[in-house]
Amino acid sequence: MTDYSALLSAIPAIQHGFGNKSALLPASLLHYRDTLPEKKQVHGTRIVDVLQPGQLCGEADGFYTTQPGILLSVLTADCLPVIFSRRDGAAIGAVHAGWRGLLDGILEQMAQRIAHDDDPANWVAAIGPAAGPCCYEVNEELVAQFQQRLPQPPALISPRFRHLDLAAIAHDKLTALGFAAVDHAGSCTICTLNADPQQPQRFKYTSFRRNSQRRAQDPQHPDIKGRNQYAAIIINP
Ligand SMILES: [Zn+2]
């Protein structure tokens, strides 16, 4: 089942969706696949203005457009996808925010891009499926780095010893940056099981972490290349 944001679903001028292991790109958006810009995500903070379908964006982790009919997307497998829309659907954005992007300020970069022509107060943001605080274990040094560099409360950043809550950090940042509303769609990419037991896949999402653990035990197990899920959004043509 595709995950949708209630906030974004309420905007008639756009379509969006968060993919998963059985439908990497939500079926309702497949039709627009050929318009996707070409890009290489590098856990950076560069935001690109997309002006035409299939635009060559180079290395980039954030995308912004006011053009109808161009699908914006980011690919994730545990990292945090955030998609954005102006309340009237006249402009949209998408961001790939892993821990590095959150720390280095990709959400701030997107807010700055929006603020160039507009006010984030006219925008809403939806946080998609990502590694949750239930499973996202990191080393103590990384938690300390977050707690030193970000203004968010230490318990919000790391609600459990050696675990990060990427979605809570993003939500707090987006609120502080002045977005009108923020919601969440989907659940933890590492542990969420498929709701439908008839599905061949045991887990709902592609997870880089789960796959790496599996491959450590069984080197024959295939890697996730080409199987990351899309978070995608388009202004209706
Ligand atoms: Zn989990």
UniProtKB/TrEMBL annotation:
Coiled coil: none
Chemical reaction(s) catalysed: adenosine + phosphate = alpha-D-ribose 1-phosphate + adenine; S-methyl-5'-thioadenosine + phosphate = 5-(methylsulfanyl)-alpha-D-ribose 1-phosphate + adenine; adenosine + H2O + H(+) = inosine + NH4(+); inosine + phosphate = alpha-D-ribose 1-phosphate + hypoxanthine
DNA-binding is among the record's keywords: no
Spans through the membrane: none
Family matches, as CDD domains: YfiH (cd16833)
Keywords: Metal-binding, Transferase, Zinc
Keyword Chaperone: no
Similarity-based family: Belongs to the purine nucleoside phosphorylase YfiH/LACC1 family.
Full protein name: Purine nucleoside phosphorylase
Organism: Serratia rhizosphaerae
Encoding gene, per UniProt annotation: pgeF
